[in-house]
């Protein structure tokens, strides 16, 4: 704070202008000229700002429509404490009506299920919570709301949570991550999965491209032309993707796709496939993958990720890129149009953008890593 300003006392009033330091100016300017400032803060900052410009107090009173006592008050507060002095001083407020125990009772009810209180609902509202709490705590609706806000409790908000029930979760994750971290020199590692139900939607009105100062816009109405399924194999070494897009995603479709993967990597000594636990990824009654592996001299090794752990499969990262860059806000006139543009995007990825992903998760070190 400036040395001249520090000599002022709140109880006195000096007609000489205030002297602002560079720090004072930097903190006052947003309060005086900002677009989203509380009026009370703008008024107090404006009083100080005008006094610092050499404006006589009487003119400040006339310009801002305040009493001379108000000008003296905030000039003195600023002289004592600087910009923080323009804030309201702490107030004791009225004594609390409800005890801590009563408020804890409300929080306990909010963390419980409504059906335990005779309500046929799944989620709480402030009204139903007030109704349930009345038998225990005679608290008003507004007091219950303030209690919830003060404790950052929002019983109506629910987030999705997916927990893997796989008993061998860590062992499977460690096995896959060890391949990511140290892929065998004699093996090709591919992550395989299916992206199903991709809708060929055509917008009734074309997308309006963005212009300076305005984002792009799209019409919410669309025409549905059917769906396609994308089968993809992501190579973790170079980021290249083998893909097939078609109407169905059956076991036969997958076997035919994997035959293409085998042909593409025919010179590889081993091919490690990382995929999920979908039924068509297992042998089934026909022993399809045992027979498939026998046809290819046993060069395939299948690693199954744990249940509910799609993040372990790197091809899901690629699907996310496809969704953002090719499908989102897409305008497809037919299934064929969707299929052609999907495959064209993947071809472009392989030629220009394709790259391996930097895998940072190192597994669970407290478990023995399965080589």
Describe this structure in words.
This protein is of the alpha/beta class. The chain has 3 domains: 5-86, no CATH class; 100-150; 169-353, 2-Layer Sandwich (Nucleotidyltransferase, domain 5), CATH 3.30.420.10. It has helices spanning 22-33, 39-52, 57-64, 68-81, 100-110, 126-133, 141-150, 169-181, 251-264, 288-295, 315-327, 335-353, and strands at 187-203, 222-235, 241-246, 270-275, 300-304. The protein has a 5-stranded mixed β-sheet, with helices on both faces. Strand 4, helix 10 and strand 5 form a beta-alpha-beta unit. Helix 1 packs across helix 2 and helix 2 packs across helix 4 (68-81). The longest helix has 19 residues, at 335-353. It starts with 21 loop residues before the first helix and ends in an 18-residue tail after the last helix. The relative contact order is 0.10. The model is unreliable at 1-13 and 366-371 (pLDDT under 50).
């Amino acid at each position: 704070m400036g040395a001249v300003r520090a000599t002022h006392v709140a109880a006195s009033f000096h007609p000489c202008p205030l002297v602002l330091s560079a720090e004072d100016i930097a903190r006052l300017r947003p309060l005086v000229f900002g677009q989203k400032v509380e009026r009370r803060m703008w008024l107090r900052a404006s009083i100080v700002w005008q006094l610092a410009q050499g404006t006589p107090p009487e003119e400040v009173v006339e310009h801002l429509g305040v009493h001379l006592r108000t000008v003296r008050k905030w000039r003195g507060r600023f002289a004592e404490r600087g910009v923080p002095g323009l804030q309201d001083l702490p107030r004791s407020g009225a004594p609390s009506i409800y005890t801590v125990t009563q408020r804890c009772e409300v929080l306990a009810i909010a963390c419980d299920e409504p059906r335990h209180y005779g309500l046929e609902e799944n989620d709480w509202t402030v009204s139903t919570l007030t109704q349930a709490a009345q038998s225990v705590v005679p608290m008003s609706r507004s007091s219950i709301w303030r209690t919830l806000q003060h404790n950052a409790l929002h019983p109506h908000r629910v987030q999705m949570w997916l927990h893997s029930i796989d008993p061998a979760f860590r062992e499977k994750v460690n096995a896959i991550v060890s391949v990511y971290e140290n892929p065998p020199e004699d093996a090709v590692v591919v992550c395989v999965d299916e992206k199903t139900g991709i809708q060929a939607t055509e917008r009734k009105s074309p997308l309006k491209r963005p212009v300076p100062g305005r984002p792009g816009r799209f019409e919410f109405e669309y025409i549905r032309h059917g769906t396609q399924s994308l089968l993809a194999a992501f190579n973790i070494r170079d980021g290249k993707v083998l893909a097939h897009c078609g109407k169905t995603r059956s076991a036969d479709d997958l076997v035919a796709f994997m035959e293409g993967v085998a042909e593409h990597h025919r010179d590889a000594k081993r091919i490690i496939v990382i995929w999920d636990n979908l039924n068509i990824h297992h042998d089934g009654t026909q022993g399809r993958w045992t027979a498939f592996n026998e046809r290819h001299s046993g060069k395939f090794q299948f690693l199954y990720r744990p249940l509910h752990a799609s993040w372990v499969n790197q091809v899901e990262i690629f699907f996310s890129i496809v969704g953002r860059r090719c499908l989102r806000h897409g305008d497809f006139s037919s299934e064929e149009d969707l299929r052609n543009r999907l495959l064209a995007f993947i071809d472009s990825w392989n030629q220009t953008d394709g790259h391996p992903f930097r895998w940072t998760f190192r597994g669970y070190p407290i478990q023995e890593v399965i080589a």
